[in-house]
Amino acid sequence: GSLIEQLTTEKYECMVCCEVVRIVAPVWSCQNCYHVFHLNCIKKWARSPASQAEDGNSGWRCPACQNASMQVPKTYTCFCGKVHNPEWNRNEIPHSCGELCGKKRQCLDCPHLCNILCHPGPCPSCPAFVTKSCECGQTSHSVRCGQSTKIRCSNVCGNTLNCGKHSCTQVCHAGKCSPCQLTVQQVCYCGSNFKEVLCGSKEEFSDGFGSFSCQNICGKKLNCGRHNCKQVCHPQPCQLCPRLPQVVYRCPCGQTPLSKLLELGCVERKICTDPIPSCGKTCGKPLSCGSYEFVHTCESLCHEGDCRPCSHTSNIYCRCGFKKKVNFLGAFLFLIAAITFMCDKRCNKKRSCGRHKCNEVCCVDTEHKCSLVCGRKLNCGLHRCEEPCHRGSCQTCWQTSFDELTCYCGESVIYPPVPCGTQPPECKKTCTRPHDCDHPVYHSCHSEEKCPPCTYLTQKWCMGKHEVSSGQLMYLNIKQFLGLSRFRLLNVGDCSPRVSCCLSWRALASESWFLIGKLGLYCHKLNLIFFFFRIAAISIATKLTDLQLGDSVEISRLITKKEMKQARLQCDEECLALQRNRRLAEALEIDDNSDPFNIRSSGPKYSDVLKEDARKDLKFVSDIEKEMRMLVEAVNKGKHTKKSHCYPPMNRDHRRIIHELAQVYGIESVSYDNEPKRNVVITAVKGKSICPSNTLTSVLDKEMQSRPPPPIPHYKQTDKSSGSIGLSKPLKEEPVIDYFDVQD
Predict the structure, then answer these.
(1) Residue 303 in contact with residue 277, Cβ under 8 Å?
(2) What end-to-end distance do the CA atoms of the chain give, in Å?
(3) Under 8 Å between Cβ of 222 and 229
(4) How high is the pLDDT of residue 406?
(5) Using CA atoms, how far apart are residues 213 and 228, in angstroms rounded to an integer?
(6) Cα(314)–Cα(341) distance, rounded to whole angstroms?
(7) Backbone φ, ψ for residue 413 (5° rounding)
(8) What is residue 185's DSSP assignment?
(9) Residue 445 and residue 406 in contact, taking contact as beta carbons nearer than 8 Å
(10) Shortest CA distance to 228 belongs to which of 269, 272, 264, 267?
(11) Average pLDDT by stretches of 10, the chain with 744 residues
């Protein structure tokens, strides 16, 4: 009725397009939930990926009840499905044909069809009356057709139960009668034990000798009347006495027939109690204590009854087969000892995880499964792997948050479910965190707690408070000295107050995130140019992130020719000698890689800094030089033009030693990876790499031998009146720190 009213007044909305369903619009009605949709809307919905069932093979789902259908509706029909494209009639229900519905009702046992006009929604219950019997079938009643309630009378059922002996005592009920609940007493086959079972069950079956086996020795008298049955409680009659004369044909050991013994004068047996004649031979029956390879036999003479315990010894191996011991016990004790004997050897094999050892005593396992919990941190960095210890990488963290993950300002949102370890979303809005200064903020919203330095350009004093420079970054503090226009590296005597100002570049260099400039030396000896230039503050601010990652900035366009000339150093005598040798080599057409004057092989020159570092760890330097010499010899003797060696991760001081030694040996050296796993890879090139005649360790040994003994400490009198003597403290030299490890 509600559907008819809403469709007639055009107040019913389609769930797909949320528009009103018009009287003349083609529609489709779901036969499960009876919702009405526009025909075109349901066609589009059925073809969309969102409508497909989860398994992908059950068709498309109804938007309202999620009932899956295989066929997509194509034509516009009335509600009963008889008429295609029904025409609208003012006196009839919209989208109906005006004829009798005629559809089968939902009730399964109702044979009558729907007798009202074509309508939306489910068909009403059947109004007809029929005669139905009760559950037990003893009485009949007139009820409405399609009534779901069962009819039950007050009479006792009375049907025969499964046992076939008793009747059902329940009141009129539906379905089959319950099994008989009465119990009967049963006796075992040998008659010594009893038990109670349900009447009509399979256990109630009896073959006339009993109903079940008690698993004890039967014990009944045999047909001879003198011996008892030694079999386990059994259903059939007991066997004949095994000692009857008509049953026994051989001696107790089974080697000689009794007929042959009778010929030799033995007495013939009359009854089962008469002794069985013995043949006098060795019994020879196999005993149970032997192994598959060596069978132990009874050594007694032919006898009746059980054999005596074995007098032989046996080797018992532990279960893993590593150790053995000698057994002097009988058969039964031999089996017990074989089961319980274990050696004390621990298994050294790796478990299935590849991380832990088995360590089981007397191990016989073939798979060596690891029973420990993995415990490694997952990719989220918050939780640990709870699976058994395994090989390879752990699975992705299965923990999920159902809270929204937002950036700091809340503009960018990741909606749940959010996998564990997900980083906050990137936000392009300006940072809204509180800052130390009042300058405008130019960086975006970020998830880090600390904001990047302020890049606002301001005015700052130099270190010596001599002059103010404009256009300086806010975060540079007062360690600003790039603004001095008359800076000279080698000649700073013209401004004595500015010496400390200009030479404070080391203090500024300690700020690892700040780029000072590009340094170089130019002379005929090293073919390098030493420059010290100031860089525009804006260039520093824009390239700061790239410089932290190890990139460089081209500053050749920021300097002038005058500054280039002023920064050039004067050559000394050694530079002039090398320049003269180079000119002579060019005149004589001698290759630069050759060494005609034996200059390179005359002995390497180690820097004082390298010697000082080597004295701190001589063993490390000795191992490094040994590896470099072996690498150079291998590349010079081998077929390959290059050979490389990778050192394990080490600290920065050790890497610097390797770089400086590599220059002496003519070896290429490069650092890879980030801290703390940063390592050095050296590469020797044939014809270029050499082994110096004097190693660094040998040079240090010679210096130690030629060094004079340490001087006696000088004491001075500090107080003449008291006569006390004090030891003057030596001046503490400031350590030289190399902040520019170019190779590393």
Answers:
(1) no
(2) 85
(3) yes
(4) 92
(5) 17
(6) 13
(7) -135, 140
(8) E
(9) no
(10) 272
(11) 89 90 91 91 87 76 87 90 88 89 80 87 84 80 75 83 83 84 84 82 64 85 86 86 87 88 84 87 81 76 85 76 70 52 87 89 88 89 89 88 90 89 90 88 89 84 75 57 36 37 37 34 34 40 45 52 58 74 76 53 69 85 89 87 90 89 89 87 88 82 71 45 39 40 42
CATH class of the domain defined by 608-701: alpha beta
Contact (CB, 8 A) for 352 and 388: no
Q: What is the pTM of this model?
A: 0.30
Q: Which residue has the tokens 């043949």?
A: 279
**Residue given tokens 């109690």 in the structure block:** 273
Question: Which residues are paired to 461 by β-bridges?
Answer: 468
For 650, the token pair is: 């080490």
Whole-angstrom distance, CA of residue 570 vs CA of residue 205: 121
Cβ–Cβ < 8 Å for 655, 646: no
Whole-angstrom distance, CA of residue 426 vs CA of residue 164: 81
* Closest CA relative to residue 488, chosen from 505, 510, 474: 505
Taking phi first (over 0 means left), then psi (-120 to 50 degrees means alpha), and beta for anything else, what does residue 291 get?
beta
How many other CB atoms sit within 10 Å of the CB of residue 351?
A: 22
Residue 442 phi, psi (nearest 5): -115, -5
Distance CA 117, CA 119 (A): 6
Q: What is the DSSP letter of 110?
A: -
Query: Facing residues of 217 across strands?
Result: 232
Which 3-state string (H, E, C) describes 49-71?
A: HHHECCCCCCCEECCCCCCEECC
**Helix, strand, coil in percent for the chain, rounding step 5:** 20, 15, 65
Pull the structure tokens for residue 410.
């809340």
Q: Return the residue matching tokens 């509706």.
A: 73
CB distance 717 to 725 below 8 Å: yes
- What one-letter code names the amino acid at 404? E
Q: Contact 47/41 with Cβ under 8 angstroms?
A: no
Q: Count of CB atoms within 10 A of residue 119's CB?
A: 19
The DSSP H or E segment spanning 627 is helix 618-637
Query: How many C-beta neighbours within 10 Å does residue 609 have?
Result: 13
Is the backbone peptide bond immediately before 453 cis, with ω within 30 degrees of 0?
A: no
Tell which residue, 201, 212, 207, has the closest CA to residue 164.
201
Tokens of 20: 């009103």
- Helices and strands in the chain, H and E counts: 13, 21
What's the rounded Cα separation, in Å, for the pair 118 and 74? 20
Give me 371's structure tokens: 């029973």
Please give the Cα distance from 556 to 537 (Å, whole number). 16
Total residues found in the chain within this entry: 744
Q: Which residues contact 448 (CB under 8 A, 6 or more apart)?
A: none
Q: Are 111 and 104 in contact (CB under 8 A)?
A: no
CB 51 within 8 A of CB 36: no
Question: How many CA atoms are closer than 13 Å to the CA of 188, on its beta-carbon side?
Answer: 17
Contact 529, 521 (CB under 8 A): yes
Q: Single out the residue of 67, 66, 153, 147 nearest to residue 110, CA to CA.
A: 147
3-class secondary structure per residue, 150-162: CCCCCCECCCECC
Spatial distance between the Cα atoms of 464 and 480, rounded to a whole number of angstroms: 10
pLDDT score, position 262: 85
* Domain locations along the chain: 1-124, 608-701
Query: What gap in Å lies between CA 228 and CA 219, rounded to an integer?
Result: 5
Q: Which of helix, strand or coil describes residue 626?
A: helix
Angle at 16 between CA 10 and CA 22, to 5 degrees: 20
DSSP string, 498-519: HHHHHTTHHHHHT-TT------
- Cα distance between residue 627 and residue 622, in whole Å: 9
